[in-house]
Every structure is written in C-alpha cells, then in structure tokens.
Amino acid sequence: MSAVLEIDDLRVELLSGREILHGVSLTADAGEIVALVGESGSGKTTIGTTVLGHLRPGAQVTGGEIRIRGRNIFDLSDRELRALRGSEVAFVSQDPASALSPTRRIGRHFEELGQTHLADLDREQLTERISTVLADVNLPSSKEFLRKYPHQLSGGQLQRVIIALAFLVRPSVVVLDEITTGLDVSTQSKVLETVRTLCHSNQVVALYVTHDLSVVRELADRVIVLEEGDVVEDRDSVELFGQPAHDYTKRLLGAIPDIAGRRLLTSTREATDGAPAVLEIRGVDAWYGTKQVLFEVDLRVTSGSCVALVGESGSGKSTLSRSIVGLNSNWSGDIEFGGEKLATKVRARIASERREIQYIFQSADRALNPRLSVMDSVLVPIQQFFGLRGAAAREKALEAFEKVALSASLVDRRPRELSGGERQRAAIARAIACEPRMLICDEVTSALDVSVQAVILSLLDRLRDEEKLSMLFVTHNLAVVREIANDVVVLKDGRVVETGSVDAVLDSPRADYTRRLLADTPSLFRTLPTRR
Length: 532
Fold this sequence. Notes:
By secondary structure, the chain is an alpha/beta fold. The chain contains 20 helices and 20 strands.
C-alpha cells in the first residue's frame, strides 16, 4: 500500500539562484503525524507551503515531485490545484484571526467551505457534518455560537475553529503551521490533543511545522530535522528524543529550557531578598471596557530581579503589564515606580517615568515602524528623551545595537529585511537606548525558534546584569520562567493565586491551578503516556 504523501527529491530555489531546499524526500502514511523542525531558514515552512502548491514570491520549484495519493501536484492545472486545496490538502494557520473573515459569522465560514468542497451533501447533511466536526474539537454547534464573529472568540476557540474547518472536508493531508504559538499551556494542551485525536481517528496525514521541540515530543509520530534545506534526521519521535544522532539535533535539544529543572543560565540564581523595590503594585483593580479583569492585585519587583507573570489567556497578564506602562489607563489602586506613584494615563507621567519603563512586545513589528529602517526607529526615542541629533544620536543608537549584538551592517535595513531574531534584537535595542531601569517583556520569545530563543534569553540575562535592569517577564511558557526569572506571580481570572521563588512555585506549587499549568506544560524529560 503506497504512502498518502510522498515528497521525492524536492528542490526549491530563489530567483537569485540560491537553492533553499536541496533534494528533500519524505513519505507519510495515513494517520501519521510528521513534524518538520529546524531553525529559521531551515526550509520547513517552504516544504509545508509547497505541499499546498504555494511558493513565496521569488521562489520556484526546480526539481522533484510531491504526490498525494499518487497524484503529482506539479502536473495539475491551476483549476485542479485549487480544487485539491481544501478537499485533499488542508491548512491550519499560525494566526487563526488572519484566516477568518472578520465580517463573516463563524457558521458562514463552514457553510461556504461546504458549498465549495462538499456540494454532494444536502443542507441537512452539511449541518450534521458541521455539528460533528465542531463536537470533535470541543466547540458548540448552537445557533448562538455559529452567529458569533471571530473577534468574539478567544484565541483557543479561534484555533479550534480553524482546525474544524480543515477537517470538515476530511482531507488526506493537513499542514499545521506553528499552531500553538501564542497559546497558553492549557489551551495548547487541548489543541494538541484535538489534533492528535482527529489525525489518528480520521487517518489524516499531518505535517506539523514548528520550532517547539517540546511540543513535537508530545504530538508527533515521526520527526524530520532540517538544517539549511537538508534533511539531517528522519526518525521515530521516541528514538530521536531518546538518542539524537546528528550534532545539529543535539544542539537544538540542548538549547531548550525545560520545566523539569534544567537551567542554561545561572545568573537568575542570584538572591534578591532585601533589595529595594523598583516596582510596587498594591490593590490594583482594572477593567477592559466595562468588564473588570483584575482584582486586588499585589506585585513587587526588586532592583535587578526578574519576576515572571504567568497564567492562561484572559487571566489579566497583559492588562496588568499595560497598566504599568500606561497603555491601559482604566485601573485603580497604587502602582509605584522608584517610590513614586505613577499616574494612570501615560501622558500625565513625567518624561523620566516614560523613559525608565520600557515595553518589549511579542511581535517586534509592533515596536518598529515597517516604513523606517531599524536605525531610524531607534533614533526616535533618542531624539525624544535625550535631545540628540545627527552623528551624536546615531552614535548612541549604534551603542545600543552593539549591546544587543546586532551587526552594524543591518541597522539601515527595514524590519522586513531582517530575520525574526534580528527584529527582536532591534526592538530590545530600541528599549535599551532609552537607558531604562525596568523592562516589561511581553511574550518576547514565543514566536522564535529554540536557538534564537536561547540567544535572546541569554541577551536579556546579560543586559539585566550589565545595565542593572529589573524585569517583568510576561509569558505562558513555564519552561522559560525556569530559565529567566527569580520569582513567579501566577494569575487566574484576574486574581493572584500564588507567588514565590521560581524553584518553590515550580517544584512545590500550592495552588491547584498552578499544578494544572505545570501538568499541561510540555517537557523533554517527563515520561509520556502510551498513546500510539
């Protein structure tokens, strides 16, 4: 019996002549989940999109075949290829919001897909198929739910809607592109279990494109490791994680912080007891519109320490961090910085307060103007806070770039011309150029591959030591918490349920909620249940 998906000697190159896939071959049988892993630029995303018949601008297939149930997709006409997508091959996006029309109700998305690819079903049969697939992903099929718009759903609900849409037509192959990036650990665990169950029960081949090797261990049947367009390992998941053969694989695994206790950095072990408070939060309530989302929150960050703020989506992490920096003014209580109370609105704060608390976003694109070079983006706060112009301003900016180890040859490029890690370094440089006393880091490593993540964590750790910075590290990744933080504050539904040192909270949690978060966090070292 032939494989469902066969990729034979696939070669892809850019118009410049640079080859980015060097003869990649793989096969996948019905119901098999195959993970494609590697650093940015390894070729994993190119493989996934090429299976869909898509190539990024400036790229072309120069050799090889991709066969789905024996049909070479490169022999298909444009019309046949369009029919193949959504029926035989489905796609689940990293960003579900971008895959759904904001002006269409959830039910309408399912109806349109059914009308296009399931024309042989009558209305009653299609309604039953939609109800079944929604139940498979633990979503309701009520009229109330189907009449909602995408913006009315949580991130986890949106991701499950996209998965349901992909499986509605019962495809042969589904390509999953970083589908858990940005999800909290509990939602991630539910999404992964949903994907695993659907693929195995429906005998669908899944190509799972990801940088998160901890997730791969818990989801994939087989792992293909790519390095700069070459397959360096293609092995059973249990075998690969038990005994990686290639040095590149060993390096990737060695770069992953783990909830089980391993630390790659050591400076976070320094004691901060008795240090003066840089940030003191007492009795803070906050609202999102008319809904209260924070209740009597207390939090303390001492000089030179890093406090991790963790919790599921909707717990209030981002609302609290944005209230601290003044991006959310709908709060009450006391927030003191350096012993002085902060005004609720950022415009009511003095320049030194705005300069000394800097916010680093999950997406560097939110801090860097896409129409400006990264140098010009960094010059803006330098001119604003220090009044420098010309050569003096550029010299100060170059000092910041040097601190984050971003090459001077890159600083006059626009953000889109840089890699994800380079853009995040530029965003950190923009914050560092302000000479802050405190950084608020909001999911700053969630979209980065493991090697780049390790570099950024090491960079932040070094800057914290050299620049005498305090940090509030907002994250859903408890393994990263183990790596970077001194103390942890756990939020649930806007309330603090647990605080303490990293080791105390992660090794001996007191709250049931914290124990559940830990149980849902993927680990390279935890024993997995038998599931294959």
